[in-house]
Amino acid sequence: MRDVLGVTISHRDSEIRISGEEGAVAKATTALEQLKSLVERRGSVGMDDVKHILAVVTGDSSLAPFDPIDVVNTSRTIKPRSAGQARYVEAIHHHDVVFSIGPAGTGKTYLAVATAVEALKHRSIRKIVLVRPAVEAGESLGFLPGDLQAKINPYLRPLLDALHEMMNHDQIKRFMEQDVIEVIPLAYMRGRTLNEAFVILDEAQNTTVAQMKMFLTRMGEGSKIVIAGDTTQIDLPPHTHSGLIDAVHRLQDISGIEIIQLSKSDIVRHRLVQEIVRAYDETPRPNGSKKQRR
Predict the structure, then answer these.
(1) pTM confidence score
(2) Cα separations in angstroms, 130 against 25, 43, 50, 204, 212
(3) 19: number of CA atoms within 13 Å, CB side?
(4) Which one, of 144, 149, 168, lies nearest residue 76 by Cα?
(5) Which of 5, 13, 172, 185 is the most exposed place for a label (fewest CB within 10 A)?
(6) What is the pLDDT of residue 159?
(7) Angle, nearest 10°, between helix axes 148-164 and 169-177?
(8) Of 243, 239, 234, 277, nearest to 136 (Cα)?
């Protein structure tokens, strides 16, 4: 911080004192407050965290310790924005099967789609398959209007939204017509073997144990699989075991499979999302009972 911001920082009697130009002191103060917040949430910080925070407070992206992901849309720079996200992207690059578990806003799906687009651009895979279980979150699929495609589109929309930030509309349309990109419900995976494909399963907490086994065994030669989910947001019927929780327990010791646990400190959406997640995690229900989790 001294080198980057040109300030003097001293520590005495449990106080940190900063001196220098007013603007630089303000930035150093902001950086230290963010580091303090990280320590309170995670218990520790590393050099990558310091570099990332300095990049944010100065607006100088060259200070960020994380390499950008090479997506097709070169007008956008997509890169990890926390140490946890950097570990996640690194795991995808070096492992054939990666589980990513964490709360909303931690970039589980977004970064997986970005690395898939990067792999397609570099021709290390031949197709991208984006998959989601069509499980109702309080709504009934049968009562939605339209044919089957119209009914399942709302479940696949988050994957398409991420894709549209990394490729232009004409590219996506052409790739989908050529079957280079598929966005499909989980049920459509049965009986297939996918070679040289980058397959992403989103909302994996809403798979059953049998569905997760079916999905994982679709993997063919030269393929990569990323499974993303939030184990605090399970919409399965009561007493139905989550395939994501089961798979992590069964597969955690297998070489070539990596499990990345993201936390509230990796949330990169609007700053209020972090506070909302914390409130739901820590605040008892109005009747005094703790939140029930499956």
Answers:
(1) 0.71
(2) 46, 35, 34, 12, 15
(3) 4
(4) 168
(5) 13
(6) 82
(7) 130
(8) 234
**Do 100 and 108 contact (CB within 8 A), yes or no?**
yes
Query: Which structure tokens are listed for 246?
Result: 């089961």
195, pLDDT greater than 60: yes
The residue count of the chain comes to 294
User: Dihedrals φ, ψ of 204, to 5°?
Assistant: -65, -15
Top pLDDT among 230 and 84 is at 230
Q: Which residues contact 211 (CB under 8 A, 6 or more apart)?
A: 133, 186, 243
- The whole-number pLDDT of residue 74 equals 61
53-67, 109-123, 157-171, 187-201: least confidently modelled range = 53-67
Only one residue has tokens 């946890």, namely: 84
What distance in Å separates the CA atoms of residue 58 and residue 110, rounded to the nearest whole number?
Answer: 25
What confidence score (pLDDT) does residue 151 get?
A: 56
* Predicted local confidence at residue 62, as pLDDT: 66
Distance between CA atoms of 244 and 204, rounded to whole angstroms? Answer: 6
Percent over 70 (pLDDT), the chain: 85
So what's the pLDDT on residue 140? 45
Sort 79 into a burial class: Cβ within 10 Å, 0-12 / 13-18 / 19+.
middle
3-state secondary structure string across the chain: CHHHHCCEEEEECCEEEEECCHHHHHHHHHHHHHHHHHHHHHCCCCHHHHHHHHHHHHCCHHHCCCCCECCCCCCCCECCCCHHHHHHHHHHHHCCEEEEECCCCCCHHHHHHHHHHHHHHCCCCCEEEEEECCCCCCCCHHHCCCCHHHHHHHHHHHHHHHHHCCCCHHHHHHHHHCCCEEEEEHHHHCCCCECCEEEEECCHHHCCHHHHHHHHCCECCCCEEEEEECCCCCCCCCCCCCHHHHHHHHHCCCCCEEEEECCHHHCCCCHHHHHHHHHHHHCCCCCCCCCCCC
